[in-house]
Amino acid sequence: MKKYITILLFITSTFSLISQVNKMISDSAYFVLEVDLGKIAKSIPLEEVNKLEFIQSLIRKIDGGSIKTKDLSNIGLDFSSKLIMFNIDREAYSSVSVIVPLKEKQKFIQLFSPEQQKALEKNGSIDKDDLIISITESTCIVSMVKWNSEFYREKTRIFFEENEWNLPDSYFYYNQYDYMDDIYYDAETTEAVEPYEYEEEVYTEEEPVQVESYKDSIDNFYEEEINSEYELEQMELENKFQNIMDSISEIGKLEIVKQHLNFIKQPSNNLYSTDDLYKKVSNQTADAKIYMNPMMNVNLMNGILYYPIRNYMEDEFKEMRQFAYINFNPEGIQLDWKIQVSDNLASVIKEASSKKIDKKLLKYIPDYAQGIALYNINGYGAYKKFKEIYMPKLDASENAEMLLASAIWSTIDEFIDVEAISSVYPPKALVSYAGFKEVELSRVTYAYDEETFEYSEVDTTYLEKIPMLTFALSNERAFLLKKYLKAFQKLNPEKVINNGNYYTILDGPMQLGIPYHIAIKEDIIIVTNDENVVQEHLNGYSKKAFDPKTYKKAKKAKLFYAHMDFSTIAKDVADLGLIYDTEKYARLFNDKTGKVEIEMTSIIKNQAHYKVNINTNENYANGGYFLFELMNAIYLYKK
Fold first, then answer.
1. Distance in angstroms (rounded) separating the CA atoms of residues 228 and 222
2. Among 20, 24, 32, residue whose Cα is nearest residue 96
3. DSSP alpha helices (H): ranges in 329-399?
4. Which of 126, 148, 231, 638 has the smallest CB count inside 10 Å?
5. Interval 300-315: pLDDT, tens
6. Where in 356-424 does DSSP place strands (E)?
7. How far is it, in rounded angstroms, from Cα 517 to Cα 468?
8. What end-to-end distance do the CA atoms of the chain give, in Å?
9. Long-range residue pairs from 539-546, CB within 8 A, at least 24 positions apart, any chain
10. Secondary structure of the chain: what % helix, strand, coil (to 5)?
11. Which residue has the higher pLDDT, 227 or 400?
C-alpha cells in the first residue's frame, strides 16, 4: 500500500511541477517551444552533454566565468521538468523569455554575482539593460525585451497634437523621410538658382594667401546659425519633443515591467489556463513541442489584415494555430506538424489538394538527383470554393468597402476566364536538385589600352561549380511558350539560341552569367541549367532510375512532397566558396549528414497534417546525439 501511495505522490508532484512551469507563459505569447528535459536526458545522457564544448561555454557565461561548476546536473536545474521558451510581440515591445525549471533554488542563485544574489533574495527579480530575471521557488524566468521606439514616438506626436503644440520640423523627415509642408516648399514659387560664375584668381609670391583658421570658420558658422531665430525655435521644439518622448517611454516601460513582475507573482491569466488547444498540445508526450498563434503577433496580423476583405479574414484567422511534436529516435528526428485553420479555409485547402499529380512530371527526376520537391495544387478548384464561401458574405455586408470589393470581384470574374488562366499557369511543378557540376561559363572583362587610354570588352570563359536545378511544369498550353521563345530568338539571336529541341538563354536569371535551357515536350515545360537533361533525356528518365520508395511517395503526393539527400552537403557548401577554413569545416561537418523527407499526409476536419523525417547517418545513436553534435560543431567553427 505504501508503495502505491509513494508512486501516486510522485506522479502528482511531477504533474504539479510541469503545470507550474507552464503557468509562467503569458497568454500574449504567439510562439512557444517546450523541451522535455527528462526525455532529452534519456536520448543523450547528461554525462555526454557535459562533454560538449558549447555546453561548457554556456555554463561559463551563466556563472560569469568563475567556473564554479562544470556539471549541468550540479547547478540546481530540474531535469524531470520542461524548459520553455516563448515570444511576445506587442505594439510597444517584443520579447523572448526562457523558463528554466529549478530543483534547488539556492544552488542556482549561487551562479549569479554577490550583488545580483542579494537583489534576487530581496526582490525576487533583476531588471537591467532590457534584461529581466525573475526567480520563484521552482522556476527562473529570463526575459530579453526589445522596445519599439516608433510606438513611443507616435504616442508623443499624439500628445503634442492634443495639446495643440507645434512639432519640430525634424519630425517630418525622421528616418530619412523628407516631408515638408507647402509653406516651406513650393515648386511654383521657388526662385531659380542663379548659376555660380567662377572667377579665376592668380596668386603670386608677392601676394600671400590669407587662410582662415579651422577654429575661426567653425566659430563663425555657429554664430551665424545660433543667431537665427528659426534655428533657436527648432532646437527648443526638438528638445521639448525628445524630453517628453523620454518621459512617455520611461513611464510606459516601467508599467510593462511592473505588469510582467506582477504576472510572475500571480500568473493567473496564463496561456495554459486560457488556451485549450495549447493545454492539449502541452499535455502530449514528446521530446519537444512547438505551438504558434499568429493572431497574437500584432505586427504580423496588421500586415495580413490590411487587405480589402480583412474583416472576414480576421474571423477566419482567429482559429489559426500551428503546433508540432518533435521526437528523437534511432533513425534520426521525426516532426509531426499540424496547421489548424477555420472550417471555411480548411474546405478551400481540401479543394486545392483534390487533383492528382501529373505523373508525367515524375519522368524528369534525374537518376543522380540528390533532392526533389513536388508542388501539386488545384488552383481553379480552390478559387471556386473560396468564391462560394466569401462572395455571399461580401454581398450581405452593410460595409461600403466590402460591397465595393464584391462589385470589383464580380466584374473581374465576368471579364476574365479564371479557369483558362489556371490552365495556363497551373501550380503543378517538380523541382530536382542534382548536386554541383563544373560547367564552362562566359563573362565580359575590360582591358585598358595605355596608348589609346581606352577600355575594350574582352569575352572570357572560365570553369565554375554551380548547383544543377531542373524545373518541370505541367501546362495544357505549353505551346504558347514555344511561340514566345521563337519570337524572342528572332528579336535577340545573340542571347536566345535555338538548338532544335530546346532553347538556350545565355544570360540567366539575375544576370549571373549562368545559361539555362528551356524545352517543351507536349504539355510539359522543362527549365534547367543542366544541359544534359534536354540533350539526352528530353523524353525523361527511367522509373527505376531514382529511389523506388521516394518515387512511390512522390506519386501519391497530395499537396506537397520533398525529399533531400544531404550526404554531400558539407562538400557542396564548401564548393560555393563561402567557407574561409575548408579544412576545419570538413573536419567538423563531413559526418553531419542525413536525408530529409517532408510530406503532407492528410487533411482531417480543419487541420492539415505534415510529416518531416530526418534520417541521420549511422555514426549517431539517435537524433538527439546528432542535434547536440551539430550545435557543438557550429559553435566550434565560429569559435
1. 10
2. 32
3. 343-352, 379-395
4. 638
5. 777 665 555 566 677 7
6. 371-376
7. 12
8. 56
9. 539/363, 540/360, 540/363, 540/364, 541/363, 541/364, 541/365, 541/366, 541/367, 542/367, 543/362, 543/363, 545/365, 545/366, 545/367, 546/365, 546/366, 546/367, 546/369, 546/372
10. 45, 25, 30
11. 400
CA dihedral 309, 310, 311, 314 (to 10 degrees): 130
What's the pLDDT score for residue 224?
A: 52
% of the chain with per-residue pLDDT over 90: 43
SS3 category, 20: helix
The residue written with cell numbers 492634443 in the block is 162
Cβ proximity of 316 and 304 under 8 Å: no
Taking the C-alpha atoms of residue 605 and residue 388, their distance in angstroms, rounded to an integer, is 19
More confident residue, 295 or 10: 295
- Give the confidence band of 192 by pLDDT, cuts at 50, 70, 90: very low
Name the nearest CA neighbour of 296 among 91, 590, 66: 91
pLDDT higher at 178 or 593: 593
Choose the weakest-confidence range: 273-287, 510-524, 590-604: 510-524
Q: How far is CA 171 from CA 161, 176, 602, in A?
A: 13, 10, 53
Q: Residues near 419 by Cβ (< 8 Å), separated by ≥ 6? A: 380
Please report the pLDDT score of residue 211 as a whole number. 43
Q: What average pLDDT does the chain have?
A: 82
> Does 500 have pLDDT greater than 50?
yes
Q: How many CA atoms lie within 13 A of 52 on its CB side?
A: 23
* 256 DSSP 8-state letter: H
What does the block give as the cell for 427? Answer: 501550380
Residue 389 and residue 342 in contact, taking contact as beta carbons nearer than 8 Å: no
C-alpha dihedral over 454, 457, 462, 466, to 10 degrees? 120
Half-sphere exposure of 16 (CA within 13 A, CB side): 8
Give the span between the Cα atoms of 289 and 36, in whole angstroms: 9
Give CA angle at 434 (432, 437), nearest 5°. 140
Phi–psi pair at 410, nearest 5 degrees: -65, -40
When pLDDT is cut at 50, 70 and 90, the band that residue 170 belongs to is: confident
Q: What is the pLDDT of residue 67?
A: 54
Measure the CA–CA gap between 271 and 22, rounded to whole angstroms: 8
C-alpha 348/C-alpha 509 separation (Å) is: 33
Please, how many CA atoms are within 13 Å of residue 636, restricted to the half-sphere of its CB? 14
User: What single-letter amino acid sits at 608?
Assistant: A
CB 304, CB 317: distance < 8 Å: yes
**Which parts of 40-92 are beta strand (E)?**
82-89
User: Quick check: 77 and 37 in contact, CB under 8 A?
Assistant: yes
Residue 509 banded pLDDT, cuts 50, 70, 90: low
Radius of gyration of the chain (CA): 33
438: Cβ–Cβ under 8 A, 6 or more apart, which residues?
Answer: 463, 464, 465
Going by pLDDT thresholds of 50, 70 and 90, the confidence category of residue 64 is low
